[in-house]
Design a protein that fits this description.
heterodimer; A: 117 residues; mainly beta; four-stranded antiparallel beta sheet; 11 strands; B: mainly beta; five-stranded antiparallel beta sheet; globular
Chain lengths: 117, 109
């Protein structure tokens, strides 16, 4: 399977616990995005990486959230001290970005559904 | 003003009819435009993208872009019950993708 993969697919945790999600992008894609989606809403941008560099982070993202993409391959998203409001679907997407490319097709992984009790 | 606006629906069409989904965007600097289909509980699936004014056809789907009016649409011909889903419009600008809230489509057999 050459698509975007995410792990785990579901996570149930208690308030105050830390959680970490993993995303493996399409292998040739140099850009990776993280989104959060709640019911009835479109995906909300969290952050993105160009290779291993984190280039932009949403102002909505509190300091409890951190993301890494070591070596420009897979990425992790960690949420510390989870709150009930963090319950959502966390989506990862990847794209091939370059100066000659203006359309930047973005492909999503299956998502990780987080439930904070 | 929201970056991307869609009518949330629900939109219902009979099987075999044409479904028309609309989207407007606020920033004229938007470079490319995407339609995603999302089934309940699943992640968005890319259907089409368009970046030039006019129409782009792919099978039963046609995307239309009018940059002067800042308007993007998706037409689904010969609608099937399997097309019942939420359709998300997204625009790409400044290294980011901005999504609308989606339009719920139901195709009635």
């Amino acid at each position: 399977d050459t698509g975007v993969s995410q792990d785990p697919r579901h996570k149930i945790t208690k308030r105050g616990q830390n959680v970490t999600f993993r995303c493996d992008p399409i292998s040739e894609h140099n850009r990776l995005y993280w989104y959060r989606q709640t019911l009835g809403q479109g995906p909300e941008f969290l952050t993105y990486f160009q290779n291993e560099a984190q280039l932009e982070k949403s102002r909505l993202l509190s300091d409890r959230f951190s993301a890494e993409r070591p070596k420009g391959s897979f990425s992790t998203l960690e949420i510390q001290r989870t709150e009930q409001g963090d319950s959502a679907m966390y989506l990862c997407a990847s794209t091939l970005s370059g100066t000659a490319l203006i359309y930047n097709e973005q492909f999503f992984g299956p998502g990780t559904r987080l439930t904070v009790l | 003003q929201k970056e991307v606006e869609q009518n949330s629906g629900p939109l219902s069409v009979p099987e075999g009819a044409i479904a028309s989904l609309n989207c407007t965007y606020s920033d004229r600097g938007s470079q490319s435009f995407f339609w995603y289909r999302q089934y309940s509980g699943k992640s968005p699936e890319l259907i089409m993208f368009i970046y030039s004014n006019g129409d782009k056809e792919d099978g039963r789907f046609t995307a239309q872009l009018n940059k002067a009016s800042q308007y993007v649409s998706l037409l689904i011909r010969d609608s099937q019950p399997s097309d019942s889903a939420t359709y998300l419009c997204a625009v790409y600008r400044g290294n980011q993708f901005y999504f609308g809230t989606g339009t719920s489509l139901t195709v009635i057999p």
